[in-house]
Amino acid sequence: MNDRCSDRIALALRDRGVQRVYGIPGGETVHMVDSLESHGIEFIITRHENSAAFMGIGGARYDGNLGVCLTTVGPGASNVVMGAGTATLDFAPLLVMTGELPQDERLYPRKQHIDQGRLFSAVCKGSFEAAAEDTRGTCIKAMDLALEERPGAVHLSLPADIMAAKAGLESPVRDRPLEQRLPDLSFLKEMIHRSERPVAIIGAGVRRAKAGDSVRRFLRGNGIPALHTWQGAGVLPFDDPLSMHSIGLPCNRIPLRCIEEADLVITIGYDEQEFQPEIWNPGRGKAVVHISANESQNVPCYSPAVAVGGLNSMMAMLHDLRERPENWAASIREEYHAHITAEVPEEKGIGPVAAIKALLPYMENSVLVSDVGAHMLWLAEYMPCQREGSIQISNGMIPMGIGLPAAMGVKFADPSKHCITVTGDAGLMMCIGELQTALEHDIKVTVMVWNDAALGLIDTRHEIALDKGPGYSLQRTDIAAVARSIGAEGIIIERESEIGEALSTARKNDVPTVLDMRIDYSRNRCLLE
């Protein structure tokens, strides 16, 4: 077996449990691709570099393992920047490997050369360059940083000449001891014990810490109702009497009343950009406690008391502190349930709420990945989440085009799950070529397209801001026909009554299925005002 530097990196990836790498190869990456395949790591060729990153992110957010993508120099490296930034702002562990020119060819202007270190330092937690000495150690450092709280993207540059060269000496790699921090929680115990109306905000860090069980015991044992960020959804199932659904928009007026009426807000595994504190605590008037593996960040309207340590350990220290186990916010919960289950006025086409209600029976053993657009806001408002990880919504970079490739990443990570993406026509057209990637790898996903032939969300924002219609319309695309031309299945849906049958067909199909649904967004304003 060869002992090139590229082999050392492939072995480091394999030892970390990486089973596949997504990307687009180039001349500068041939040795790396060869080493991946030689060491049993599947290389998935995507149609765009961003999609490669999004697939890695989808899988990483689902199972917590490291996602990896590989691109080449110049345009390949620059094309994956959006994906790297998305991983960093969504706190998803992603190793972004890029081919690079030999060092002596970077001393003068030449084609396809950009300063990769400076480029990726702007959107990643760190940027490393592999060298002949300690190649494996450099890769391990990069992977460790990507997985370290708060996780994100880390860049690893792979010079073509180094990858082809014989590997040099390696420094011994020592396992870093896991720090078990057990802070003094006496102040927090007293605050919870004295509180009459506490409410929790559950964030993405709970799932990253695999602390769902201990958080549920804490909430139920103390009778504390819980709101969820979009990325924390499902820690308490929607049907749990203490679940107050999710928050992520100022217009989530009913759940936000929990915070308005609370005398203590307990954030657990909360990342501040998930739902900015200036929205839910604008006057800084609330007593707030931040329980997390991470220190609180310096953002407006957030100066909490802080308890930093292992979430599972801290939750175990906070059981049964209150003598009032009933949900003090039960009336708010009932009002919200009535809101999302109420009949809505009949619309010209298929209304968003009707589309979501038709989708609900098909969510068992499914993971739903939302793309970005008006549909994302409707899902966040009306889609109940019954299980951790069963709904993915990007809430950091929030890029259009993430839906299909991220859903494919989930399916690659767990073939037993039925994966559904809800997307818009504009978002899908950014990545529709990945249907071919799905076909090539027998990845069966259901793609529900809310097709309004427009940039519907921007349309609505323009109308609200300027009090006039902007006309961000697009030419109507027969997306079902495009899907069929690729070899996938495509079904046009024009009436609500057709949705269930189409979803049943999609589940039975042996190929990816695109449901081209003619949506009516005339009620978008109610989400934003």
Jot down its keywords.
529 residues, alpha/beta, Rossmann fold, 3 domains, six-stranded parallel sheet, 24 helices
Itemize the secondary structure elements and their pairings.
Elements: H1 5-15, E1 20-23, H2 30-38, E2 42-45, H3 49-63, E3 67-71, H4 75-79, H5 81-89, E4 94-100, H6 116-121, E5 126-129, H7 135-147, E6 153-159, H8 160-164, H9 186-194, E7 198-202, H10 204-208, H11 212-222, E8 226-228, E9 243-246, H12 253-261, E10 264-268, H13 277-280, E11 288-292, E12 305-308, H14 311-316, H15 330-341, H16 352-359, E13 366-370, H17 374-382, E14 391-392, H18 403-413, E15 418-424, H19 425-429, H20 434-440, E16 445-451, H21 456-466, H22 479-486, E17 489-493, H23 499-508, E18 513-518, H24 525-528
Parallel strand pairs: 1-2, 1-3, 3-4, 4-6, 5-6, 7-8, 7-10, 8-9, 10-11, 11-12, 13-14, 13-15, 15-16, 16-18, 17-18
Helix pairs in contact: 1-2, 1-7, 3-5, 3-18, 12-15
Description:
There is one protein chain. By secondary structure, the protein is of the alpha/beta class. It folds into three domains: about 5-165, 3-Layer(aba) Sandwich (Rossmann fold); about 185-335, 3-Layer(aba) Sandwich (Rossmann fold), CATH 3.40.50.1220; about 345-529, 3-Layer(aba) Sandwich (Rossmann fold), CATH 3.40.50.970. It has a six-stranded parallel β-sheet, with helices on both faces. Strands 9-8-7-10-11-12 form a six-stranded parallel β-sheet, sandwiched between helices. The chain has a six-stranded parallel β-sheet with strand order 14-13-15-16-18-17, sandwiched between helices. Helix 1 (about 5-15) packs across helix 2 (about 30-40) and helix 1 (about 5-15) packs parallel to helix 7 (about 135-145). The longest helix has 15 residues, at about 50-65. It is globular and about 70 Å long. The N and C termini lie far apart (about 65 Å).
